[in-house]
Amino acid sequence: MFDGKSLVVAMAAMVGSFPAAAADLVTYQLDWLPGGDKAPIYVCIQEGFCEEAGLEIKIEPGRGSSEAITKIATGASDIGSAGMGALMAAKATEGVPVTAVMTIFNMGPHAFYTTKDSGIASIKDVKGKKIATSPFTSSNVFLPLVLADNGLSEEDITLTKSDPGALGPLLMTGQSDAIIAWLTDVSRYSGQAAEAGKELVVLPWADAGLELYSASLVAGDKFLEERPDVAKRFVAAFKKSLEFAYENPDKAAAAVSAQVPELSAEDVKGSWLDASKLAFNDVTEKFPLGTIDADRLAATWTRVAAAQDLDPASLKPEDAVNRSFLPAAE
């Protein structure tokens, strides 16, 4: 017969003989290649936040928001990052079964980069100047709007399209007076400017009136409907990772380089420090991290519809989001 102590030991042995509950697999879709701006998902894995939430993460690289949204819509991936504007346009034109559950960047990343010797001190100063951009950046869609906001049109500039890797050299050698690039690249272009003996000037389009949501956490509707608990656990873990990355940039950089060895921690850190300003800023002080403000969402759709010549009535902005998966702000 078992005494009390023996019974406890026996029960503990029985519990220990059962396998641990398997983690829920979640396929995370990047909207571009791995880099510093993608640090939170790597932090989630490296720091154990996803594991603590009972999640196993598989990361898929991407080639733009449109591809990411397509992969999530078809079920090839469960959840991932994509531009809010790209999602809204896709829902308006194709009715994709994908929904935003959290904002990552509450500001647009678009900007003009120039050098102090160009004489360009504001966006209005680009009139008559040579501007270089990459062919596929989403910034090109919003260029007419930001120019119009400043009393200009595309006829007022000479726009050329070049390989993304050529933009920095074009600017530093004076072949272009300015380039169009994202705010996630300030560190990289600052380094190139320093090497060329120049002083970099960055003109964010958000400061000139282009206020909108950009990178967001978007999920397939089927994933949200069939695995809501998994989705909630993932969103909570991702938000925790985003906050951790902001507070610990060195560890965030180390998390990325540990999983993507071809990226140096130094370069990743610079990129993340640039990108984090799009998530933690004046807007975040007004609207807590990850939240989706109805007015800012509506303003984003107004801009997207105008930029892509879409009927504003083709989408109700609220149909693009679901706030129920985001944990309450503390």
Question: What topology emerges from the helices and strands here?
Answer:
Blueprint: H1 4-17, E1 24-29, H2 39-46, H3 49-52, E2 55-60, H4 65-73, E3 79-83, H5 84-94, E4 98-103, E5 110-115, E6 130-133, H6 139-149, E7 158-161, H7 167-172, E8 178-182, H8 186-195, E9 200-204, E10 215-220, H9 221-226, H10 228-247, H11 249-259, H12 265-276, H13 282-286, H14 294-307
Parallel strand pairs: 1-2, 1-3, 6-7, 6-8
Antiparallel strand pairs: 3-10, 4-10, 5-8, 5-9
Helix pairs in contact: 2-10, 2-11, 5-14, 6-14, 10-11, 11-12
Structure write-up:
Keywords: Signal. It comes from Roseibium algicola. This is SsuA/THI5-like domain-containing protein. This protein has helices at residues 4-17, 39-46, 49-52, 65-73, 84-94, 139-149, 167-172, 186-195, 221-226, 228-247, 249-259, 265-276, 282-286, 294-307; strands at residues 24-29, 55-60, 79-83, 98-103, 110-115, 130-133, 158-161, 178-182, 200-204, 215-220. The protein has 330 residues and is α/β, with parallel strands linked by helices. The chain has two domains: 24-107 and 212-325, 3-Layer(aba) Sandwich (D-Maltodextrin-Binding Protein, domain 2); 110-208, Periplasmic binding protein-like II (D-Maltodextrin-Binding Protein, domain 2, 3-Layer(aba) Sandwich), CATH 3.40.190. α6 links the parallel β6 (130-133) and β7 (158-161).
